[in-house]
Design brief:
2 domains, 5-stranded mixed β-sheet, globular, Nucleotidyltransferase, domain 5, alpha/beta, about 300 residues, 9 helices
């Protein structure tokens, strides 16, 4: 028997787990990402954390058999390289090589949203569908087209960057350098930022959703703008890939029907040639990326995950 090591690197924290052969998290951990210390420090922290997890597994009598690592940004999974992360600031980091050299274990590297999509396909809301679109709406917005339990990366490893679709041409500047991107209006970070700018009072996106539902005018305006921008981005994606299902994850999706109900209505109102698909909330919450990383690590082993 052996454990699988799984890590999901975010802008704020690194979620990690030791998984058994069924994909169940036997031990779960969290460490701050520490991006304020610079990208090199974050890379060192990831490698050191992985070594620590390997020691934990060995100490429990279940030596690790593989490592799954999900990271943000542009990721060349086959090469094991994190090409670029605007969130953390690294470029061309050979994560697969670095972790393999320090642990001696095979390493599956993945984009964090694609890892989440894999988890929802195999263990969560997408299990009944052969293919679907997984959309994570958190600090940013990104999607993964998942088919037969695997995410499609695209020719240049950039598939799914729907947060950078310009839905308001000439609008607010986006971190990508563009203007009017969906992410600048509909991400959880954008909702919080826009509400704070309007009211002078800091509120998280989940609070804005609740205030809007309660009839608060300022929150209602921000929330309606976010829902409409997200609906426009999803409809553009639907015009291209026509998915039967969109699974929504990330922090904004934690609002549940406060998001899904108006989003369904707005997509139905604004659809032209598109047929709005089913919308479902992700079932695995903020564990999806970490679980997906573990599933991809299991794919490297002979047995894989037993379901």
């Amino acid at each position: 028997m052996a454990y699988l090591i799984a890590l999901d690197v975010g802008g704020t924290g690194i979620k990690a787990a030791l998984l058994d052969a069924t994909g169940r998290a036997m031990e779960q951990y969290w460490r701050p990402t520490g991006r304020e210390q610079g990208p090199d420090a974050v890379v060192r922290r990831i490698v050191t954390f992985t070594e620590e997890l390997q020691r934990q597994a060995a100490g429990a009598g279940m030596p690790a058999s593989a490592v799954g690592l999900a990271v943000p940004g542009i990721v060349d999974a086959p090469a094991g390289v994190g090409i670029r992360s605007t969130t953390i600031g690294w470029r061309d980091i050979p994560f697969g090589e670095l972790v393999r050299e320090r642990t001696g274990l095979p390493v599956a590297l993945s984009h964090d949203v694609r890892a989440g999509g894999v988890a929802e396909a195999r263990l969560g809301a997408g299990r009944a569908h052969r293919w679907f679109l997984f959309v994570a709406v958190g600090t940013g917005i990104a999607a993964a087209l998942v088919s037969d339990g695997r995410a499609v990366p695209g020719a240049q490893h950039r598939a799914g960057e729907i947060g950078h679709i310009p839905v308001r041409p000439g609008g607010e500047e986006c971190v990508c350098g563009g203007a009017g991107c969906a992410e600048a209006y509909a991400s959880a970070a954008a909702v919080a930022r826009r509400h704070t700018a309007l009211t002078g009072t800091h509120s998280e996106a989940s609070q804005v959703a609740r205030l809007a539902a309660a009839g608060d005018v300022a929150a209602g305006g921000v929330w309606d703008e976010a829902v409409t921008a997200l609906a426009d981005a999803l409809l553009i994606a639907c015009a291209v890939v026509d998915p039967p299902l969109i699974v929504l994850g990330g922090g904004l999706a934690e609002s549940g029907e406060l998001l899904l109900a108006p989003l369904r209505a707005r997509m139905a109102e604004r659809a032209t040639v598109q047929h709005p698909p089913l919308l479902a909330r992700a079932q695995l919450g903020d564990r999806a990326g970490c679980l997906g990383a573990g599933l991809l690590a299991a794919d490297l082993t002979k047995g894989g995950i037993r379901r």
